[in-house]
């Protein structure tokens, strides 16, 4: 009875099952990726620095990527996007990638920077500097290495290893089974960033008496950061520590100015400057506005300006000067007091003066105080760095863990004590009184909170424009200064439209897609398989009555035997 219903079953198949179902469902199963998440994966990437400074182009000049991925060690990089771990990439590799005409570079960053060895951190910082020293024509992106990206990297590495197979059959099968990845950046058009603005925040503590007739000291720190990619520059030490130190000094010294018993006959001016990593453009603009101002600025008659940068590490402080101060001048007396206080409170702290003339032939100034020195204003920079060319000043490796809170608090106390001794004229050897102590002690919780807040987001000057979410940081800094200082105001300026001092370009942070693809040989093989499969299906359909008869005959013979 069962075999008698065979005719009806075949009629159902012929009449109700669409032909394309028989043909295409097996094909979809055959070509579908093994891991669906790797079929198409989207992740965030950070583009390399791209800006013009004083008309000179810097950094990566393009952004478009739509190419197959390759890893280091591949036979060719031509029209390919190279994906590599940053710790494995060298300057020689990068030059080879550029010379072979690669279409782009994706560098993978470790998730946990603290797990890197000191030599690995040094290698990454050296690579950053070499990448930023020249103009780069190919698009260069950076991304944090997630488990999905690790899997993609391993697959690309396997498909582009170029190892010799044991036999021709093994080579053919390896080629057919390998899976590549097409890396695509949808937003691949670079454009100049619109509505660029730089903000300076200033406030002051007025001395007791007629303000214009009192001596003045200026304290300065720039709050922006710099690294190989704007979206990855957190700048904990340079210059998050300088900003935190300035705010803590404002808090401490403001307590002396609020009491009539301790109100000194000295003016203190505080400045948080913008675009410090771009040749101190914010400081330059602020100096010009105050010197040319008709509102009676305190800057032209200031005794000296103290710039704070990178104070969160090492057991040394270096006072960088463009011209050594004359003996018994305010600058010389302050330096002597700084050394005396440091030796008295912390014998392990080494404080010295470093003299370096300004080289106007260089494109970039070395230190922030040089902006003041150019205008014949006495100024110096205090930093634990001895050289302006040290790698840690401008690196994505400058993270929160790099700052030693104990040493930062120690340095703030020494600076604050030396300033207090100077403004109260307690600079003789016999006067050993400590002013910043007990109720006025440095608060480590205050410094910690500011460091955590400053390093919670990248602070590149490009990201601190009016249209960026990072702009809220500028407002927070303004509110913090207004809490302790008087006449706090934020002044903004825009680059000259006809001859801009600097130009920033977008995109800085975007998305990249990785699509799983097969090699061209696989397409040929798949075409042959599809053609053969279609021929078999065609022969079965056109000769269906013969197939039906054969099946009936076989079934009848089995029925007789049973």
Descriptive report:
The protein is α/β, with parallel strands linked by helices. The protein has 3 domains: 3-31 and 524-561, no CATH class; 36-192 and 509-518; 198-493, Aminopeptidase. It is built from 16 helices and 19 strands. It has helices at 6-16, 19-31, 36-39, 91-99, 118-132, 147-159, 168-177, 236-257, 281-291, 330-345, 369-374, 405-423, 444-454, 471-484, 520-542, 544-561, and strands at 40-47, 50-53, 56-59, 65-71, 81-85, 104-109, 140-144, 180-185, 191-192, 198-205, 216-222, 267-273, 304-308, 316-321, 350-355, 379-383, 486-493, 502-506, 509-517. It has an 8-stranded mixed sheet, sandwiched between helices. The longest helix is centred in the C-terminal third of the chain and has 23 residues, at 520-542. It is elongated. It starts with 5 loop residues before the first helix and ends with a helix. The model has no long low-confidence stretch (mean pLDDT 87).
List keywords for this structure.
Nicalin; 8-stranded mixed beta sheet; about 40% helix; transmembrane; alpha/beta; 7-stranded mixed β-barrel; about 550 residues; transmembrane helix; signal; endoplasmic reticulum; Aminopeptidase
| Low-confidence blocks of residues | none
What integer value in Å does the Rg equal? 34 Å
Fraction of helical residues: 25-40%
The fourth-level CATH homologous superfamily of the largest domain is: Zn peptidases
Alpha-beta content class: alpha/beta
CATH class value of the largest domain: Alpha Beta
Q: Kindly give the count of domains.
A: 3
Average pLDDT confidence is 87
Q: How far apart are the first and last residues' alpha carbons, in Å?
A: 14 Å
In DSSP terms (H or I, runs of 4 or more residues), the helix count works out at 16
Strand content: 15-25%
CATH architecture descriptor of the largest domain:
3-Layer(aba) Sandwich
What is the CATH T-level topology of the largest domain?
Aminopeptidase
